[in-house]
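Sequence only, no structure available. Ideas?
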Amino acid sequence: MNQDKANQQGPVIVWLRRDLRLKDNPALNAAIETGAPVILVFIWAPEEEDPWEMGGASQWWLHHSLKSLDSDLQEIAGSGLTVLKSTSSLKALKECADATCAQAVFWNRRYEPHIIERDQQIKKELRESGLEAKSFNGSLLFEPHQVQNKSGSPFKVFTPFWKHCLTRDFDSPHSKYIQSVIQWDQSIEIDSLQLTPTLSWADAFPEYWTPGEASAHESLKSFLKKAVQDYNDDRNRPDHQGTSRLSPHLAFGEISPRQIVDSLVKSMKSDSPGKLPKDASIYLSEVGWREFAYHLIYHFPHTTTEPLRPEFADFPWEKSKEDLQAWQKGMTGYPIVDAGMRELWTTGWMHNRVRMIVASFLIKDLRIHWLEGSKWFWDTLVDADLASNTMGWQWTAGSGADAAPYFRIFNPVTQGERFDPEGDYVRKWVPELRKLPAKCIHQPWTAKEWELKRSEVILGETYPERIVHHDTARKIALDAYQKIKGK
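Reply:
I predicted one. Tokens follow.
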């Protein structure tokens, strides 16, 4: 577009949501290509996210991510992010467009069911008001509606889904250099959104995380240099730094999956994503699981609150508030479970292997509805992502697509002994057990009296007794499953 014409027609608004980056941002690229000035707008309208309003840990991340993006813009373009607060994104966009004589509004798509419906209405009304309104794919490798099995239906099993994806062409990341940014004078301070928790809960988060686009790429660079070569072995070890820890950066769009794939392929000196060495290929499949999660939530939107497999609607769940609170606080009497829940509370994150262990314990040992776990994770995870969170909990419950069979019940003792063999993870997060020897740290009730005394452990006082006996709980859970199996 001609520069003079573009300026006559007014700027382009880029509406940012879960895409807080300047590189490989399709909506931003398209805006820059018009030749018009750009207004980057973030709108805080939490009521529109109902029933999945952003949790406390995610709000902490959002606050710092917005600060980082605003700083990047100030440095690169000399002007900052336009931050607005409203009960209606449509109203805020229209007001901004009217006041700045904008010609268009561009944004990157989201795929949560309630957001899809809202965005469609926003696009319709913006166009009816005379604005150009366009949306782009900025968060996935492939659009969910473009991936189908041979019969033209959505996939329900990961392996064929991912094999199909690997046969397709992967787009390379593409960035346009932004030079001109307009900040609308009605922009408010990021601090005024009051996103950071008022409780001291998140005080330790800065020790573990640095939100922002630059930090995302540093984390990826470090992972590709140090850990990816041993990913297959180390990814299940919570006592090792064997994962990329990119999940919160991905959740807020500070880095795109295309950038991850491109960097991974280049670092392995490979020709394509389908020809990577074993460890790199397994890591790539984790990106694939994220794609699969969005595939499922797009095609089966009811699964955010209801089981995909309808027979599980009749499962006889327990409703023990005491057991739920013991699980939330990391006071179940099972060290690997308690370590995971305390890591989550302290850092806003939990190792993926431990996520599976604590989820299995809640659902199958305590027989508490998976939605209770999903809601707790939603509030306490800095990487809370509705698609991945839903898929993960339904997978553990046995009620979702490609789910673990219900009879696959993790034993928290053997899981701890296998993946935290020396007890280092438990010692870090359950310090009251730090003096116990490795042979009994995952089952302190088996320690001899002198071992407990020497380790300064008093079961029921300094560390809780088991709130349930796993072998008994496992049998009860399987009996409950058998009752619904034939329905």
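Residues 1-7 have pLDDT under 50 and may be disordered.
Hope that gets you unstuck.
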